[in-house]
Design goal:
Elements (H helix, E strand, L loop, with lengths): L18 E12 L2 E12 L3 E5 L6 H7 L8 E6 L2 E2 L4 H10 E4 L11 H11 L5 H14 L15 H13 L5 E5 L7 H16 L3 E5 L3 H7 L2 E6 L2 E6 L1 H6 L4 H11 L1
Parallel strand pairs: 3-8, 3-9, 6-7, 7-8
Antiparallel strand pairs: 1-2, 1-4, 4-5, 9-10
Length: 260
């Protein structure tokens, strides 16, 4: 796709924002295989962080640990002052503040688009059906798909379904949005409409952590790009630094293949 069509997000504030996500020495195993090795990362309020790296590098495992979709065995994760643990109240608290958009949409096929978007606000936030419907329509307008409110997911294209998934997450008014390769299941012509939606969130100051191979998006939008390989963060920096002068040989090799 032509990444020149994506506009730069704009001037970023020099003021130091508070840390919303603090990850320290995170370790995770699947059986005998260690997928995350002493991973430490901070994400500040309003910051856009893109995590990239080859398949199997631990990117998705890391982002899924942030809202306990994956359980870590060692280290700590603190989200907005709440440390993630096995306590259900803490998990529920963090999940209510952290929106998640998956690779494969995960919409309920038997519910309309409006019903998909209002389910969590009604059951978790305990708001009325009327207020939930108004909230859902607001965010469906925001992702430019309000006309599909009464359709079912299988009546929408992949790009439209992913925009609905973003609207559904926004209906919980999250403090942080996590994106796990949100465009990798889409046809090329559908990618731009999803990226444009994500860019609009970035322009409005949403704190975002995104696992993606869309390096054009990372270059235009990210405040910080993190490169992972072998379960470790090998390098991180601004897009200009990471893409223009990567220090680690593994980063250099990965980017040369991806950007060639």
């Amino acid at each position: 796709m032509n990444m020149e069509a994506i506009k730069p997000v704009g001037v970023r504030s020099e003021q130091v924002a508070p840390v919303l996500i603090h990850i320290e020495k995170l370790n995770k195993w699947y059986g005998d295989f260690q997928v995350l090795k002493d991973v430490s990362l901070e994400v500040r309020k309003g910051e856009r962080v893109v995590i990239c790296g080859p398949s199997g590098s631990g990117k998705s495992s890391l982002i899924r640990c942030i809202n306990r979709l994956e359980e870590h065995q060692e280290g700590s994760i603190v989200v907005d002052g709440v440390e993630l643990s096995s306590k259900l109240k803490r998990i529920d608290k963090i999940r209510s503040e952290v929106g998640m958009v998956f690779q494969h949409f995960n919409l309920f096929p038997h519910l309309t688009i409006l019903e998909n978007c209002t389910l969590a606000p009604r059951w978790v936030r305990k708001i009325s059906r009327k207020d939930a419907n108004e909230l859902a329509m607001h965010f469906l307008e925001r992702v430019r798909i309000p006309q599909k409110a009464h359709d079912y997911p299988n009546q929408l294209s992949g790009g439209q379904q992913q925009r609905v998934a973003i609207a559904r997450a926004l209906c919980m008014n999250p403090r942080v949005m996590l994106f796990d390769e949100p465009t990798s299941a889409l046809d090329p012509e559908m990618i731009k409409e999803v990226l444009d939606t994500m860019i609009s969130l970035a322009e409005e100051g949403m704190t975002m952590v995104c696992v993606t191979h869309e390096m054009g998006f990372a270059r235009k939008v990210a405040d910080k790009v993190v490169f992972m390989d072998g379960g470790q963060i090998l390098e991180s920096g601004t897009p200009d630094n990471l893409f223009g002068a990567p220090r680690h040989a593994r980063t250099q090799g990965f980017l040369s293949q991806l950007l060639s």
